[in-house]
Amino acid sequence: MNIIVCVKRIPKTAEADILIEKDGKDIKRDHLVFALNDWDGYAVREAVLLKEKFEGEVTVITIGPEESKEVLTRCLAMGADRAVRIEGPSSSDGHLIARILAQAIKGQSFDLILTGVQAEDDGWGQVGVALAQILGLPHASIVTHIEIERDKAKVRRELEGGIEELLEVKLPAVLTIQTGINEPKYVSLSAILDAEDKETKEVGMEEIGFSSKGPLDATIDQVSFPPTGKMAEILKGSPEEVVGQLTEIIKKKKG
Amino acid sequence: MKQIGVYICHCGTNIAATVDCEELVRFSSTLPGVKIARDYRYLCSDPGQDLITKDIRNLSLDRVVIAACSPRMHEATFRNLLSDAGINPYLLNIANIREQCSWVHQDRQKATEKARHILRAAVARVLGHEALKTRKFGIQPSTMVVGAGIAGIQAALNIASGGMKVTLIEKAPFIGGHMAQLDKTFPTLDCSSCIFTPKTVEVTRSRQIELLVSSEVTEVTGFVGNFKAKIRKNPTYVDFARCTGCGDCVEACVLKKGVPSEFEEGMSRRRAIYIPFPQAVPLKAVIDRESCLLLSKGKCKKTCVEACKAGAIDFDQKEEVIEKEVGSIIIATGYDPFDPHLLPQYGYGVYDNIITGLQFERLSSPSGPNRGEILLKDGTVPRAIAFLHCIGSRDENANLHCSRICCMASMKQAHLAKEKTGAEIYEFYIDINAFGKGYQEFYKRVREEGIFFIRGKGSEIFKRGGRLVVAAEDTLLGTPLEIPVDMVVLGTGLTARRDADKVAQTFGISRSADGFFMEAHPKLRPVATQVDGVFLAGCCQSPKDIPDTVAQASAAAAEVMSLLAKGEIEVEPTVATIDPELCAGCKLCIEICPHSAIEFLEAKGISSVNEALCKGCGACTAICPNKAARQNHFTHTQVLAEVEELVG
Amino acid sequence: MKIDPKTFVHDYQLNICIQCGTCTGGCPVKFRSPLNMRRLVRETYLTDNFSSLSKRAELWACTTCSTCSLRCPSGVKNVELIMGIRNFLANKGEIPSTIRDALENTLLQGNPWGRFRDRRADWAKDLGVKIFGEETSETLLYVGCAPSYDPRVQSVSTALVRIFQKAGVDFAILGKKESCCGNEIRRMGEQALFKKLAKDNTALFKKSGVKRIITLSPHCFNAFKNEYPDLNIPVQHYTQVLADLIGGGKLHLSKGLGISATYHDPCFLGKQNKVFDEPRKILASLPGCDFIEMERSRERSLCCEGGGGRMWAEGGTEGKRNGEIRIREAVALGAKTLATACPFCLLTFEDSVKTSGLAEQIVIKDIAELVVETMG
After folding, report:
1. Residue B340 DSSP symbol
2. What is the pTM of this model?
3. Do A12 and C95 touch (CB under 8 A)?
4. C215 and C133 in one domain?
5. What is the rounded average pLDDT of the residues C325-334?
6. Radius of gyration, alpha carbons of chain C
7. Which of A46, A216, B122, B643 has a Cα-to-Cα distance from C3 of 20 to 30 A?
8. Distance from CA of C264 to the nearest CA of B (A)
9. Which range marks the domain in which residue C188 is found?
10. In this structure, are C122 and C86 located in the same domain?
11. For residue B345, which residues of chain C lie inside 8 Å, CB to CB?
């Protein structure tokens, strides 16, 4: 069973100071650390688990600049067999990304395409679904369980309110993977160092036959912090002081 | 014209299977100087030897080459043969075609070729051999025994009873060593002083033994049969000739708080003037200069002097240097108990009632501080006692060696403790080494007595709820334990004396890796050292129980007696000489000689070998720039002749 | 860097074990987990199924306090064995998820908690501390991860800075450029990551012209002193520096504390690196501080269970925590303050003081905090 996984390199922002660029169109990235998108990590792990069960090859693909190679190395260390980097725009236009990926994937032999549900940074959640559409493949999103039965996949989807949906998808198909679908394995530094020696295929847009004619489907106008809500109050001081203030507030609210 | 006989041994098939012995006979016959060459199945056998003897007589041979096994095996045999046949024994040469040829090769042709080389070289060398004469020296019929513990005492008594003079030297002011401190002895449980006192008394009675206490050997020169020793007698500030051992001075001493008593292992205190213990031999008071107020601080009322009716106290006593000439020396300096402060996990010195094995002996001894009662520091009887084995022994962090006696000592102490206190007793052990006669039986007996054996080494001791807690694992169950007890006895091991290095230097002997003095051969010469005439006895050589110590002491005495009985010693003639005509007096040889056998003759400005001290190592011969140093039986001519044939 | 289990016997000298149980007898988690060091040595020596042996949860209970290997009469390298097995597991990716996160965080952010790299020196913002790169000094105060990020331990960092400033010690910190020392990383089994951290840190120290390192944590002290292969820069734990400053009269300690305090020896400072006297010297010199020694002190100190990656491990142990035992011991002694000199000890005791309900009776302090209190 041959599986293609589409992955993305994202900045880790959870703990970081978020600053906005002067033009107001993006956040500052120089001081941030980058990693493999969390959802994509689960997707790669799932692909490797399926491969261990059914044999075949796992190919990981990313679009992005030179630095994106580091997430592919990580995927190789996780057990992927081949890695492809498409030298392309780091754009938040999910449709564009999906079109490029489709162009690269078209004509390859595969049984399954996995992507993460969404990216940690822009959270569009669009690429997987759009890719399926362009390639004319069935798809399922927010997948939490996969079982392969010959040319079909039985998948479980996570719905709101704790409900699960069980459905059958004909292969080949595109599945967008939800976190928690599997137990991630630790990727040791020695595995990463070993993977650095493995080959990553680098291709340009022309090589895959993609011409970026026409305007983008969506462009970013502005990024900004949401206005501070009226009910929000940031407590300042040492942990002891903060706890003191908090206790007072709770007491007051309780009346 | 030199007449050499060459004899090739088949050594059964040992040699003959790999080396063509007939070919060697043919080859030897062609070598210069060879009058006769023969091969034989076993040359070392009587008929083999007869064959050679007959040839020597009938053919007037004057040199012999034996191609056979290593000279370490039969050189002496064939030298004796030559001697008996009327040729100087040093006109023999052995060609080793077994260890160095047949045993290490398989290809018969090549092995034979190599044997030819070896034989050729041996013949070339023997041509240059010179007749040499062994020399003889007289022996002083007296012995110095260093250390008067049970080992030294036993050796001294054995020698004295053979009618020979002994000087018995002891560093402490009394004799008896560690055995004097013990309560009962394993496995028979007879009391140490009961079996020991007769021996100490005998020492003082013997006319052959001169006892020097408070004395140390500071320098030894000379050689076997003719040692000169310098002995420093430290002042005791008491005239032993006058002292009656009444103890009045001790009572009078103003140092009422005292200092820890060495003999009592710090379990009680003594004054500055003291009699070490009631059965001390000699029973004399001594003054310790460290704690005496007059000697250390220069100020005291001298109440002891007033109290002494015999007028024995003499603060003007000075150290004395005594010189002795002796024929042989026995070193019996004993051991130091391991200091458990070095393993802080056992809390020794931190908590009361954690004591060493020797301290337990004093506690249990009827003459000890508690008159034999096993009590805690507060005077109460312990309800539970733990004995920890292997403290400071079998431990990479302390000493790797097994101290041998601690298992038995610990079990004996457990028995005594059980008997005297009825306490619950735990023995924490790794393995029980019950190696001697009646020891395993004793082990069984102690188990039967209800002593609880836990197979696990004590890991640490701490205090909880006022009691001592021993942490360990019962390794047979795989269960970690923390057992509360009231007293812990550490089975402290035996180590080399702190000053062992100095003593080794003084006598020119060496120490093994464990720090104890090294014997000449661990199995076959366990009593001798590599210095002729210097022997070892007791725990200075390795940890031993009393029976083994006594046995080794008697063995040392026997070695001494057999040496002294000869009246003279033969010295191998393979020593170095220095040609006075060639010597330039550069002293390089003096520096390099490991046996201090070369002296510089100031008057002549040259160096000279003391043949009695020379061991024939050849170092001076190799270093002498003028070729003035020359070693008998290893002359340049001889060695080069051999080498040339070997490489040629 | 991978350690081959086939070489364990030789590398850790498992074949010379005499099965005396000294290791298990002194193990701080012997009653808290099924970990039996003696048996583990034997089993690893004999096993033909190492993989199944390595799956035992109790392997993560070891705190790497090293009591076992320090006391082993045969010289078996027990702790290295634990680290070897953990390395085997890390390379297979089969480690507990919390340990996995700690290791991944360290690779990404330079600290096991995954706190933002750029915020490492936030605690020092208003303290007027020199930072290498901006200014120079010969002395590096290597802060460490917990003292940089954990609010409880930041107070120790701040205290130390104030003490050094008062005593006129010229020093600087690495600021945002500081990365984890790797001591705990190695103990969690990630030998390769440790090696990388050691290499990068060594290069950074040398580039910054550091001539002397002072560490806040005994764990960093241990890594630099004993495990960095090419460092060659003298390292001191801060208690050694403070003892010198106090001894040399460089610190004026005037304000009386009015406390009775006892001291807990951190394993990585005490038994592993033999720094026993300096912390006691400091405590003895504090005005109004009545110092009481604990029963289990120095080489016999009971591990707080904060080392060996235990800060990030979950479970594997049961029953009363050593931290709680320690606090009860201190309270029983009559101490009102339990002093220590290690961020992990400090944090585990702070936890235990709460879980044992003894917060009214005793406070946990780092020695640096006590010193700063006496400066007035």
Report:
1. G
2. 0.86
3. no
4. yes
5. 95
6. 20
7. A46
8. 15
9. 97-242
10. no
11. 26, 71, 299-300
